[in-house]
Design brief:
heterotrimer, B: 169 residues, alpha+beta, C: seven-stranded mixed β-sheet, globular
């Protein structure tokens, strides 16, 4: 059975559910503490996940201190070797501060996840949003490989989730888009609230050029089961959720399961 | 139109500053700062009233300064921010987002409430205390290196893609 | 020869140390130690004898609350209550619940007050050995548009910020809670916090040194943040009235990031100890800091202890012994373990989880030794800082307070003009009637990945906390200040009633309750009468609403009393008993939400409407009147309604369910329609204020059309209308289009409080 390593930093708080949904997807998973680079490099893994949370309480800015932990040296190396690496929420912030995404010059900071921009509010926002994959995402990115191109919902929960790039890089970024925020019927988000944080180009997830590293702000591990979809959700998934039988609501996958299914397929899980 | 800046700090030790110093120590720099202080730095453009207007704003909104946990002063040239200033060679760096909700929302709120304020810009002032006899130009150069995260291992306090850095006089 | 101090000297000590204890109490203390007490002893007893820790005024009254029921594992007395929850895969899982207030600190420092409120309550659940699976905040603020509106708006923003900055970082899902605005809270907001978690029955941890310590050497390990001077005097602050700037130094600094790491390290230590079958004691540091945790762990285990304050990791130099011993620095725990495992335990904290690297001088250290001499001995820098017979420390004090009935009788409005469309519009766009979604949008309700219903989707939040099990846990907290004001007895009773209904409406059977009783000064006979009335109301309601069969009540397993909630002028807040009810649904797949499902379905009204609109949203927002006739509490009817609703849900026949409370039937219907976005309810009832807006307890339930044909409805259930196309509520000759109100309904709070529009 393939194995994924979930890397816990001081202040991570989504490590258990992330490890759980990986297991449920047919991938063995183990949680490693920030100071277990030795144990991790002895065992290695087939994929790496940096879970959500508040590493170092987002002090200075989200993700920056964790990106300097020496366990990230190892993750960096593995990413360069082409191993699938996923950062969810705070994990995404760590990846962008590590220079793994967009990764034009790996290790160099070329993007930012800045504070949410929203009318009349600042700080944290948790809500469900609709997403769809970028043009090259399904083909390139193991984590997104099981998507079919339709809009699907996931929850977001963050205070610093606005992707920002330098003006001169804006064209280059387009081929790195993993997911974008959209309306329930799949058209591009036109500002708040469908784009919940002011991300440029409506970007919700960003990958490196090879596609093996993905930094995503939404939380697929919180929407693994159909019963986790809110009952008042609009669109296809809302209808599916409201009209499901007792059997289906338990057994049918939620939209977040597609992300882990993609990885499982990539790693050869039947 | 007049620009007024205030610096706000916690009266208890600031955990973010403690963590910052811890992180800087781990970077194994040749000459790390010995102390780090953190302040919220608010810059206001007032249509009238200058400092008087801003004193009123501060009195009205505990979100900006809650006197039960914070102290504040007008932070302009020549301001001495802490009593221990003379012990070290201090360099102040200001980090601001190119665009942020806090600034925009406070600008809107103060205008709606009728304060003669044209704009609010929020930022963070990090003050790094180097050894007393450090050459000032060198201290400023070292602070600037630390201020900008160009790579995963170099720099710390700002992300150059979304934030701007300036020296605080 | 005794060198007992004279009264005058004691009086000086009490006033110069800013103690809350009376001079009589100081004399009692001097008698116990038979000399002038040390500064540490003064502060320790000041905390132990504070209202917050000793329940000295409330204890005799609280005895009436029912606590006995077959599922109760641990009733009131320890840090949290415990009830049995489910059996899965051979493991007995228990639910751990705790409920507290953090009112006074939040008024002065809203962000830190609300944050440390969550911090304190989750520690109470953690230290029973549980993983915390949820928290909830029950908030009462002044009028954001009233005389003190500006202060109030700042407090609301700060409290919400404190809750998200701290709670979200902890990784504990926030299950919402309620928010009310009432000018009676202008000078004294209420921030009540609930936390709950799950623990395997055989892994419950107790907060006293175990029996084994009588036979082998046990030591006390202090772990967590290094001690500083923050929060010195905190417990007495929580019990003193809010007079200007008195409490400033007493508010704690929260550190959720350390707390999170510490919680995981604690779990690893507990795993280690259980794995070796070692008995131990575990307790969080809250009020009274090191002094309370060391003395209580020892005293409740029947032992004495020697504490060495020089061994305490500190972050400030030269702190006096009483400050090291009594400060309330956050994020610390005390652990009583055999000396033989000390090295292993310290290594988990200090090496594996690297506490010292995460915060300077943060670490676990041995600071005391238990012994059989019944003395509480503290040394600091070679000096004796305390030497007290230990049983006195936990003995407590009790006062019989005077009570005096308040005449609450108030007139009903002379006229009750009713225009359903205008009235409903006004209620839904008022601060009292609008959506709380903006507040909840700052909360992380989904971390841990087991949330079934988030705040606002159903009458209570539901999670599925035991991996692999279908058992769902529902929780709701309620309390209506307008009822409390008009009739504190009914205020208490309906707090239980509404929380029960909210849990029942999702299909969960209530299994236990917690309460937080917020009142004015117990020394004020009227406030004390209100307190007693409310407790009587809770007692009566809990006795009527037991779901464990037989005559068993709904047990109140944990709670807190918060007195001295009053303005500078001494005016008490509205009597505010706030109750949380926890329920269990065997199969969470059957849980019901408030979202209307299908056009043409029948809408049932459970609970006949009565003319009792006192304190109602309709009176307050539409008539500017409070009225006088609060809904009667009909215990046996409430129970019958709940049983019937649960039956229909468990049979899988209920499509959506919403309880009727604030705003009555019309508002309940509007909320169901708003949640569905595309459907509404067309009522076939008379359009009068009693039918539409009376807050007589009840439920609205959506069922398939043929349900009504096949089932004989009990006398308290009637067909009220049907689900209609389009998001609206309508009746005889009127219709309210809700989509056109949606923006105002959902944005009102943000507009007034966060953006200060039109203030």
């Amino acid at each position: 059975m393939p194995c994924a390593a979930v890397i816990r930093f001081p202040g991570s708080n989504c490590e258990f559910e992330t490890a759980r949904v990986l297991r449920n997807s047919g991938i063995d998973s183990r949680i490693y503490n920030w100071n277990e680079i030795g144990r991790l490099s002895d065992n290695k893994a087939d994929a790496y996940v940096l879970p959500g949370g508040f590493s170092f309480q987002d002090r200075i800015r989200a993700g920056v201190i964790a990106s300097r932990e020496n366990i990230m040296d190892f993750v960096f190396e593995e990413a360069m070797n082409g191993k699938p690496v996923l950062g969810i929420c705070n994990g995404a912030q760590v990846l962008i501060e590590s220079g793994l995404v967009p990764g034009w010059k790996p290790g160099s900071v070329q993007g930012a996840l800045a504070g949410n921009l929203a009318p009349g509010r600042s700080g944290y926002l948790s809500r469900w949003v609709y997403l769809k994959p970028g043009k090259e995402a399904v083909a390139k990115c193991p984590w997104l490989s099981a998507l079919e191109g339709d809009a699907f919902p996931l929850p977001i929960a963050h205070a610093e989730g606005r992707f920002v790039f330098r003006e001169e890089d804006m064209d280059k970024v387009k081929s790195h888009i993993g997911l974008t925020y959209c309306t329930p019927d799949g058209s591009a988000a036109d500002g708040w609230p469908d784009n919940p944080n002011g991300s440029v180009l409506n970007i919700a997830a960003l990958m490196n050029a090879e596609g093996n590293v993905l930094a995503m702000m939404p939380h697929p591990e919180r929407s693994y089961h159909l019963w986790q979809v809110p009952p008042d959700m609009q669109g296809f998934w809302g209808d599916k959720r409201r009209n499901s039988s007792l059997k289906d609501i338990e057994e049918q996958p939620g939209p977040g399961a597609i992300i882990f299914k993609g990885l499982a397929k990539y790693l050869g899980v039947k | 139109m007049e620009k007024v800046q205030i610096a706000v700090r916690l009266i208890t030790p600031d955990p973010a500053a403690v963590t910052a110093l811890n992180t800087v120590k781990a970077m194994r720099l040749q000459m790390p700062p010995l102390k780090i202080h953190r302040y919220d730095l608010w810059e206001f453009e007032t249509a009238e009233g200058g400092r008087k207007t801003i004193s009123e704003v501060v009195d009205h909104f505990t979100d900006i300064v809650n006197p039960n946990k914070q102290t504040w002063i007008f932070a302009e040239e020549g301001t001495v921010l802490t009593a221990e200033d003379s012990e070290l060679q201090w360099v102040g760096i200001v980090i601001r987002d190119y665009e942020d909700s806090v600034s925009g929302n406070w600008t809107g709120l103060l205008k709606r409430r009728g304060f003669p304020v044209d704009s609010v810009r929020w930022g963070v002032l990090w003050r790094l205390g180097y050894l007393k006899n450090t050459d000032e130009a060198l201290a400023r150069k070292m602070a600037l290196d630390l201020a900008v995260s160009q790579t995963r291992t170099g720099g710390l306090f700002s992300n150059p893609v979304s934030q701007e850095v300036s020296f605080w006089i | 020869m005794s060198d007992r101090p004279n009264r005058e000297d004691l009086e000086n000590e009490v006033s110069s140390r800013h103690l809350a204890m009376t001079v009589d109490e100081a004399e009692k203390l001097a008698g116990y130690v038979d000399r002038m007490p040390t500064p540490l002893e003064f502060h320790l007893f000041d905390t132990m004898w504070s209202e917050h820790c000793s329940y000295k005024s409330s204890k005799p009254v609280l005895k009436t609350l029912p606590t006995d029921s077959p599922g109760v594992v641990i009733g009131p007395g320890e840090d949290a209550g415990v009830v049995s929850f489910c059996n899965h895969d051979g493991v007995e899982w228990d639910l751990v619940v705790a409920h507290e207030s953090h009112n006074h600190p939040s008024q002065v420092l809203p962000v830190e007050g609300a944050a440390t409120g969550i911090g304190g309550i989750v520690r109470d659940v953690y230290c029973m050995g549980a993983r915390v699976t949820g928290s909830m905040d029950l908030l009462r603020f002044g009028d954001p548009l009233g005389k003190k509106g500006e202060t109030t708006r700042g407090i609301v923003r700060g409290v919400v910020e404190g809750i998200w900055k701290y709670g979200n970082a902890l990784g504990v899902p926030n299950m919402g809670g309620d928010t009310e605005f009432h000018p009676g809270y202008d000078d004294n907001c209420l921030v009540n916090v609930v936390a709950f978690g799950m623990v395997p029955h055989d892994r419950i941890v107790h907060s006293f040194v175990p029996e084994e310590a009588h036979r082998e050497p046990y030591v006390l390990i202090l772990t967590g943040k290094p001690t500083d001077s923050t929060g010195f005097g905190g417990a007495t602050f929580a019990s003193a009235d809010l007079d200007g700037e008195q409490g400033i130094g007493s508010v704690q600094v929260a550190d959720p990031f350390l707390k999170r790491v510490l919680s995981e390290a604690n779990q690893a230590v507990l795993d280690l100890l259980f794995g070796k079958d070692i008995k131990f004691g575990f307790k969080d540091l809250g009020a009274g800091g090191i002094a309370c945790v060391t003395s209580e762990l020892a005293a409740h285990g029947g032992l004495g202890i020697d504490v060495d304050l020089d061994a305490v990791p500190v972050s400030m130099e030269n702190l006096p012994p009483e400050v090291i011993a009594c400060s309330e620095t956050q994020e610390r725990y005390g652990l009583a373990v055999p000396a033989a495992v000390v090295d292993e335990v310290l290594s988990v904290y200090n090496d594996r989880f690297e506490l010292p690297r995460l915060f300077p001088n943060c670490r676990a250290a041995v600071i005391g030794k238990f012994n059989s001499k019944p003395v509480y001995n503290v040394v600091c820098r070679g000096q004796n800082a305390a030497a007290t017979p230990i049983n006195y420390i936990t003995e407590g004090v009790v006062y019989q307070r005077k009570e005096h009935a308040v005449n609450c009788g108030a007139p009903e409005p002379a006229e009750r003009p009713c225009n359903p469309r205008e009235n409903l519009t006004k209620i839904l766009t008022s601060l009292s009637g609008c959506s709380r979604n903006h507040i909840w949008s700052y909360y992380d309700s989904e971390v841990q990945g087991v949330t079934r219903f988030r705040p606002g989707e159903a009458d209570s939040c539901v999670s599925v906390p035991v991996e692999g099990s279908r058992a769902g846990l529902a929780v709701s907290g309620d309390g209506n200040p307008w009822y409390g004001e008009l009739d504190p007895f009914l205020g208490g009773a309906h707090s239980v009633g509404e929380a029960v209904r909210n849990v029942v409406a999702t299909g969960a059977t209530p299994i236990c309750a917690t309460d937080c009783l917020n009142f004015g000064s117990p020394e004020d006979p009227e406030a004390f009468w209100q307190f007693k009335q409310a407790v009587t109301g809770i007692t009566e309601a809990c006795n009527a609403l037991g779901f464990s069969g037989g005559d068993y009540p709904l047990p109140v397993v944990s709670g807190n009393v918060s007195f001295y909630n009053q303005s500078k002028g001494g005016k008490s807040i509205p009597p505010s008993p706030i109750v949380a009810v926890f329920g269990k649904i065997h199969d969470h797949r059957k849980a019901t939400d408030i979202v209307l499902r299908k056009q043409g379905n029948a809408v049932l009204l459970v609970g006949t409407r009565k003319d009792e609109l006192g304190g109602s949203l309709f009176y307050r927002t539409c008539l500017g009147h409070h009225g006088g006739t609060v809904p009667v509490f009909r215990g046996s009817l409430e129970k019958k309604m709940a049983d019937w609703v649960l039956g229909v849900i468990h049979d899988g026949k209920a499509r959506s369910v919403h309880d009727i409370s604030g705003g009555g039937l019309a508002v309940a219907a509007a909320e169901m329609a708003l949640a569905s976005r595309t459907l509404g309810i067309q009522f076939s009832l008379d359009s009068n204020p009693v039918t539409l807006f009376s807050e007589t307890p009840g439920y609205l339930m959506e069922v398939d059309p043929d349900f009504v044909e096949n089932v004989t409805l009990p006398e308290f259930v009637s067909v009220a209308g049907r689900v209609s196309a389009g998001c609206s509520v309508s009746g005889n000759g009127w219709e309210v289009d809700l989509n056109s109100l949606r923006k105002q309904w959902s944005d009102k709070l943000a507009s007034v409080i966060w953006r200060e529009e039109g203030v």
